[in-house]
């Protein structure tokens, strides 16, 4: 039997990656949504955004198919927080998001679809 180490192994997330019809367009959308910057591009296939501590990479996948939400289970999605949720919703829609009729969050969160038609949620900070 192996000896147990007294120090716990601690990991961290360096980056999260997402796929869609157009990785660069998704990077531009989320950078504008969050007030971040596109920090790196990878040819025509991908782009990275960051706030200096967290990074997301958005890849183009030619065979990408958006989930048929809410019927399809989601593999992953983002929850974004804002000081003024109503203002954020209107700004995000202006950037290319859409608001589906199905809104399971009540007053707690709002579901929007990004330009690749993938759901993400917005809510108030705190």
From TrEMBL:
Keyword Aminoacyl-tRNA synthetase (UniProt): no
Q: What is this protein called?
A: Enzyme related to lactoylglutathione lyase
Origin organism is: Streptomyces syringium
Which keywords label this protein? Lyase
VOC domain: from which residue to which, for each copy?
12-125
Q: What's the superkingdom here?
A: Bacteria
What PANTHER family does the record tag this protein with? CONSERVED PROTEIN, HYPOTHETICAL FUSION PROTEIN
| PROSITE patterns, per database record | VOC
Q: Which CDD domains match?
A: VOC
